[in-house]
Specification:
Distance between the termini: 16 Å
Shape: globular
Order of helices and strands: HEEEEEHEEEEEEE
Helix content: 10-25%
Number of helices: 2
Largest sheet: 10 strands, mixed
Radius of gyration: 17 Å
Strand content: over 45%
Length: 180
């Protein structure tokens, strides 16, 4: 559903930007989703603000809206959702063309794995790329049970055959998988 919310934000970003448009800027948003059978929260999403902007090139105004989401926080507890649901949402949103024009500045992700292991990733910037992955860069901090690393960039994608989130850190020999 996080991806559905981002999709909604993208729809907002395609609206014409006029001073009378109340959807131009959105301040504060919080969302929690719970497992139907057990009542446990499996997703938490919040951000401080979302701004739609039409960039200018000299005196020309581009007909392309860009969306900036400020202070995005996403927490996913993989113990309380189905792999198919999460993979479907990630794939659906990452394939939307408009999502590539949205950036999160800064972004904080927190995953609780099936064995209660926690992975936290913080970065100054993040966005979906054309290949369907979520790219994070600029002062990336990766933290898990083994410790904390400062890295240049990181990429997250869904591996459907392994039913896992693929975490790829450049210059690391092997990416690792977070099972769904």
């Amino acid at each position: 559903l996080w991806f559905s919310v981002l999709g909604f934000c993208l729809v907002l970003s395609t609206l014409p930007v006029h001073s009378e448009n109340p959807l131009k800027n959105a301040d504060g948003f919080k969302l929690s989703l719970f497992n139907k059978s057990m009542g446990h929260r499996f997703l938490r999403l919040d951000y401080k603000e979302a701004q739609s902007d039409n960039p200018k090139l000299g005196f020309l105004k581009m007909r392309l809206s860009l969306l900036k989401v400020r202070n995005l926080y996403l927490e996913i507890d993989l113990r309380h959702t189905s792999p198919d649901r999460l993979m479907g949402l990630f794939t659906e949103v990452s394939k939307k063309k408009g999502i590539r024009f949205a950036t999160a500045e800064p972004i904080h992700l927190r995953f609780t794995g099936l064995q209660s292991e926690t992975i936290e990733i913080r970065a100054e910037k993040g966005k979906f790329s054309a290949d369907g992955s979520l790219k994070l860069w600029d002062n990336v901090i990766f933290k898990n049970q083994k410790g904390k690393k400062n890295i240049d960039k990181i990429s997250l994608s869904i591996n459907i055959s392994k039913k896992a989130i693929l975490v790829n850190i450049p210059n690391n020999s092997d990416p690792f998988y977070l099972p769904l």
